[in-house]
Amino acid sequence: MRIAAxxxxxxxxxxxxxxxxxxSDSLTLKxxxxxxxxxxxxxxxxxxxxxxxxQAVPNNPGLKLNLGMALHMAGKKREAIPExxxxxxxxxxxxxxxxxxxxxxxxxxxxxxxxxxxxxxxSLQPDHREARRMLxxxxxxxHCLLCDYVSLELKLAERIVCVNDGFAAIVPFWAVWPFETxxxxxxxxxxxxxxxxxxxxxxxxxxxxxxxxxxxxxxISFPYSSGIHQSPTDGKKHPESHFHMHFxxxxxxxxxxxxxxxxYEMLANPQRDITAESAAARLREISExxxxxRPASA
Length: 298
Ligand SMILES: [Zn+2]
Ligand SMILES: [Zn+2]
Known about the structure:
Blueprint: H1 24-40, H2 43-56, H3 61-73, H4 77-90, H5 95-107, H6 111-124, H7 129-141, H8 145-156, E1 160-163, E2 167-170, E3 181-185, H9 197-218, E4 225-229, E5 244-248, H10 263-267, H11 276-285
Antiparallel strand pairs: 1-2, 2-3, 3-5, 4-5
Helix pairs in contact: 1-2, 2-3, 3-4, 3-5, 4-5, 5-6
The structure holds zinc ion (2 copies).
């Protein structure tokens, strides 16, 4: 159960001004080939194409970012740094470049520089959307959005993966990543510290069951990014906050075919490759006994 960092691929188009560049057609073609190489996982080819594009269109932050990402994905972390540094120097508002820079530095063991870059990414894209929505729902209806949501999903039973006394694992109807799940407490709990003993055990139980199902799906150590959302710690009361955990897996059809968030998805709407209901059904049918037998104890 490997937690892999997910990186969004922001594939920029070639800037063409009022006077088209003499080679704009070939540059556009090269840009498309580079994007395709990234999608196919051919990072060596993507690096070479992005190097050519950066030479042809110098000082373009998006192209610097793409070259940095290709280098990162090819395992050339050290070489990725200057390209990503250039990208944020050219456009300090380019959140994905800060994000990639932070992740690359983290993987190189440069924690202080990594945190600085990741803080920049967060300040540019603070993910407060959920918190704002929960607050608005509470104010409008007088009760908690996720309490209502989890009871509705339990009633419908179409998108439920598994449940225990304390928690439900659901493929939410808004899922964007394939096999994305949300683990929600059935009782209104704000944070880990608000859990009863038995809920703590139930939480451990449901995480294990979700993770085993993920591993069994393609019979590999399944990669995902995950995180917990709980009450803000600003000293105020937050009755609108409801403890939950997200899982965002990148794999789509097999151990090697993954989903990439590409230009249109970054700039307009995410594309759903599989429905929430079919993803939930697949996960539900999968055994909770891990496909690899436990090693015999010595
Ligand atoms: Zn609640
Ligand atoms: Zn959340």
